[in-house]
Amino acid sequence: MAAVHSGLASIHRRFEAQYRCYSVAMLPGAARENVDYGGKVILPPSALDRLTRLSVSYPMLFELTNDLHDPPRVSHAGVLEFIAEEGRVYLPLWMMNTLLLEQGDLLTVKSTDLPRASYVKIQPQSTDFLEISDPKAVLEFALRNFSTLTTQDIFQIYYNEHLYEIAVLEVKPQNAANAVSVVETDVSVDFAPPLGYTEPKPHTQKTAETIHGPGAMAAIINFPELESLSSNDGSFLGQGQKLNGKPALIPPSRKRGVDKPPTPLRLPTGMLFFGFQVVPVKIAGSDPEEASQFDGKANTLRAAKRAKGDATDVIEID
């Protein structure tokens, strides 16, 4: 009976231990991107033995507390492996920054139970996140390396050689820990505008205005002033003379200028203008009527006389 009572007591006991914390970059061996940009920690083998004896169910979730800070900083994480040296725990760098931890600080690790997430609201910390073509797919892939999400945490994901920071603004269902489990659950994700993002101002389309005055190009080059200068040019002025001494007739000069502004082309709404119809220039000889001139049958005088029948003698001249 005592053994049964002790077994029931062990089921309700909570795992709790203190470790020296270090970033994943200091873990012996090759670099692990899924650990540094995820939400799981690496514990020593002794932790697995204690968790087994305490019958901690899957998924194993932990509450991480920095008691050295006032007030204490709290976050949550899952566990990836039990290969750390005894007395050490390895965390992602972003998690150490959230908990305000330095390398070698003491960290309290406690087992916990969290509800499965149904809703998460996040906020990218940079407008560079908007350059991702499919942010939901990227986030879904990145959350595979996470077991929990805690309100006010700022986690990091690595995508396409860029590092993105994302803040957790809200989680549901709401609970005292302000954290949820994202293991084997469907989560509705809501994106808040990125930090520093400003809504673009709507552009109002200007209606076409009636053109008054010279055309645009004439106004740019100041055509009226150039025209007046060219008309007042005094070069080669004088009166022409003929060889017979009579005065030469001066033809009236044609005045070039822009007396009136160009008339704007006004078309009904929905009509397109592709230019005026081109009338082809006639080329000499291309007209079939001209080409048929001087057509007919050739006749000679000799044949004409034979046709008359009244000539008796024919004189041929060689």
From TrEMBL:
GO terms for cellular component: VCP-NPL4-UFD1 AAA ATPase complex. It comes from the Eukaryota. GO terms for molecular function: polyubiquitin modification-dependent protein binding; SUMO binding. One of its GO terms (biological process) is ubiquitin-dependent protein catabolic process. Keywords: Ubl conjugation pathway. Pfam families: UFD1_N1 (PF03152), UFD1_N2 (PF24842). Belongs to the UFD1 family. PANTHER family: UBIQUITIN FUSION DEGRADATON PROTEIN 1 (PTHR12555), UBIQUITIN RECOGNITION FACTOR IN ER-ASSOCIATED DEGRADATION PROTEIN 1 (PTHR12555:SF13). This is Ubiquitin fusion degradation protein 1. It comes from Neolecta irregularis (strain DAH-3).
